[in-house]
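Narrative of accomplishments. A recurring question from our advisory board has been how the design workflow behaves on a single, concrete structure rather than in aggregate. To address it, we present the structure tokens for one chain from the evaluation set, followed by the sequence designed for it. No filtering or post-editing was applied between the two.
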């Protein structure tokens, strides 16, 4: 895959292979057509309608929906339909600014095609004409994108947290930063990715931050989720992106960073348009 293909892959979702997953009268996610049969063992939890699956209207509040989906997720995990159990929940929202409709085990989000959220950090040194960017290699033990390169810091936003709280926590756990340094990070924008994966649908809001680091800074992982760190110049980073060595989400974040800082010339005019399609609707 080249640079343009990497960015296009971030918004490659084709709904024809999925049915709508509704909570109330609104679509909350997308379920692979071949996964729907697995849910029929819970007729009290779901309504099966034309081209959509709806969470039972009898589940009228956040707690009831959360408990019901927890039972379903545990059952799917026992069957092997959900893997990588985390014992951590994500809030389920129709819109990011809305109150949660419920909460669900993190590993089940892709099965239901729900929209998750994450915080990502571009850690860099130098000026645009001599910039170096730190990347983290994901542990091969991770259930998602094992062994691929990622932004220096990245982490999903768990229930009860926001992007900033998540970023500060992950800066300490993933890169060994002290809080004073992490708090110098600057928010730079938001992206949305949506792409089919074997587990279902990966749909995620990415809250992006930049942090300029001292030349002598060396990251240090403390939670076992990173196997190594690499520090690359812009040409090397572009080559790694084009070769598919970065996770798709990290590719979007890193490439936009380079363009925004004018650290590279635009290699293909289609890249700008592809990045713009990754912007969530206002």
């Amino acid at each position: 895959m080249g640079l343009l293909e990497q960015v296009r892959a971030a918004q490659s979702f084709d709904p024809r292979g999925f049915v709508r997953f509704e909570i109330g009268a609104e679509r909350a996610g997308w379920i692979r057509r071949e996964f729907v049969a697995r849910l029929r063992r819970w007729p009290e939890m779901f309504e099966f309608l034309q081209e959509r699956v709806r969470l039972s209207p009898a589940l009228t509040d956040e707690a009831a929906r959360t408990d019901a989906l927890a039972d379903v997720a545990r059952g799917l995990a026992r069957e092997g339909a959900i893997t990588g159990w985390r014992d951590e929940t994500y809030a389920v929202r129709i819109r990011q600014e809305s109150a949660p409709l419920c909460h669900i085990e993190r590993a089940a989000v892709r099965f239901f095609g729900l929209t998750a959220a994450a915080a990502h950090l571009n850690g860099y040194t130098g000026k645009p004409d001599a910039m170096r960017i730190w990347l983290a290699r994901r542990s091969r033990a991770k259930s998602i994108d094992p062994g691929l390169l990622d932004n220096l810091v990245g982490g999903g936003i768990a229930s009860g947290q926001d992007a900033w709280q998540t970023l500060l926590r992950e800066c300490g756990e993933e890169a060994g930063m002290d809080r004073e340094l992490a708090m110098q990070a600057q928010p730079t924008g938001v992206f949305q990715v949506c792409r089919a994966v074997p587990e279902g649908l990966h749909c995620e809001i990415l809250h992006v931050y930049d942090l300029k680091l001292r030349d002598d800074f060396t990251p240090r992982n403390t939670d076992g989720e990173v196997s190594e760190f690499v520090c690359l110049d812009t040409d090397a980073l572009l080559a790694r992106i084009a070769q598919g060595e970065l996770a798709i989400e990290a590719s979007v974040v890193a490439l936009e960073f380079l363009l925004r800082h004018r650290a590279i010339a635009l290699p293909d005019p289609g890249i700008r348009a592809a990045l713009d399609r990754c912007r969530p609707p206002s």
